[in-house]
């Protein structure tokens, strides 16, 4: 079976230290898969490998059966990999529309001369790009801030803009790196709804890094757990949250596990 996104024995070493160690996981069409683990478990490094920010030490990553070895990082988006970042990476002096339009750049085929003339294909491409951006703005319910400068927006609104920019790349699989970090309960619930809608209405698979256990357990089809760069377990949320290795990774000692394991799994104490 060919998976939409597949990692096989993926390893990344820095000076002999394995930040990611022989990780194997996959995401299929229509799935929401979460990657969890304590701080320093290797989650963001894993995302940086999948999106081409870092080169592999060993192992392989493929999308729809195509091995990404030898593919230039800026070509990953053309193959269907989109992402958001743990730390916002927006153009703070640009408007919401301008920032989301950046996600359409890879689709522009216009030459410099054509762009200067701004007639024919350049005009058609710009109209199509702006139409798609307006669809995304409506989807994310941010019409009221579409012309606002991003730097003047709240943190939660900026996170939504970054999500919009990632959607503008037309991804097949979307990597969300702590998308609700720093958000209040209402903002988190909104993002959870959008993630489900992205899967159901847009047909985009999701690979999610998150510390909010409520969110992970509520929306994930499968959960993959890392600690010190290695896989502890993978499975359905109900299976993962009761796994002894997961409880130990988050809570440490046997005494802590006995006292707080259930609270971590059910109440999201691993934030």
What is the residue-averaged pLDDT? Answer: 87
Q: Which regions have little confidence, pLDDT < 50, spanning 5+ residues?
A: 259-271
Order of neighbouring strands in the sheet with most strands: 6-7-8-3-9-10
Q: Helix proportion of residues, in percent?
A: 25-40%
What percentage of amino acids are in beta strands?
Answer: 15-25%
Task: Please work out how many helical segments DSSP would assign.
Answer: 11
* Quaternary class: single chain
Please report the distance between the alpha carbons of the first and last residues: 35 Å
| Strand/helix succession | EEEHEEHEHHHHEHEHEEHHH
Shape: globular
Q: Count of DSSP E strands?
A: 10
Could you describe the largest sheet, including whether it forms a barrel? 6 strands, mixed
If you compute it from the alpha carbons, what radius of gyration comes out, rounded to the nearest whole angstrom? 20 Å
Structural class: alpha/beta
Describe this structure in words.
- InterPro entries: AAA+_ATPase, ABC_AA/LPS_Transport, ABC_transporter-like_ATP-bd, ABC_transporter-like_CS, BCA_ABC_TP_C, P-loop_NTPase.
- This is ABC transporter ATP-binding protein.
- It holds the Pfam family ABC_tran.
- The chain contains 11 helices and 10 strands.
- The chain is α/β, with parallel strands linked by helices and 271 residues long.
- The protein has a 6-stranded mixed β-sheet, sandwiched between helices. Strands 2-1-4-5 form a 4-stranded antiparallel β-sheet, covered by helices on one side.
- Helix 10 crosses helix 11.
């Amino acid at each position: 079976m060919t998976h939409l996104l597949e990692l096989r024995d993926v390893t990344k070493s820095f000076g002999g230290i394995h930040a990611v160690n022989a990780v194997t996981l996959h995401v299929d069409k229509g799935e929401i898969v979460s990657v969890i683990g304590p701080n320093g478990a290797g989650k963001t490094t894993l995302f940086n490998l999948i999106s081409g920010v870092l080169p592999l030490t060993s192992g392989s990553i493929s999308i729809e059966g195509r091995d990404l070895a030898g593919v230039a990082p800026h070509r990953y988006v053309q193959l269907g990999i989109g992402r958001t970042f743990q730390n916002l990476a927006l153009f703070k002096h640009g408007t919401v529309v301008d920032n989301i339009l950046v996600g359409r750049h890879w689709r522009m085929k216009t030459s410099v001369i054509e762009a200067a003339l701004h007639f024919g294909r350049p005009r058609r491409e710009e109209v199509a790009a702006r139409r798609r951006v307006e669809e995304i703005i409506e989807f994310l319910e941010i019409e009221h801030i579409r012309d606002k400068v991003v730097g003047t927006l709240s943190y939660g609104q900026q996170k939504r803009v970054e999500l919009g920019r990632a959607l503008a790349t037309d991804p097949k699989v979307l990597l969300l790196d702590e998308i609700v970090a720093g958000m209040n309960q209402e903002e988190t619930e909104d993002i959870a709804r959008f993630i489900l809608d992205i899967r159901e209405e847009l047909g985009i698979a999701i690979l999610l890094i998150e510390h909010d256990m409520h969110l992970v357990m509520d929306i994930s089809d499968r959960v993959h757990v890392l600690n010190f760069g290695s896989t502890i377990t993978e499975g359905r949320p109900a299976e993962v949250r009761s796994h002894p290795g997961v409880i130990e990774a988050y809570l440490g000692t046997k005494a802590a596990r006995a006292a707080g394991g259930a609270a971590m799994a059910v109440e999201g104490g691993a934030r």
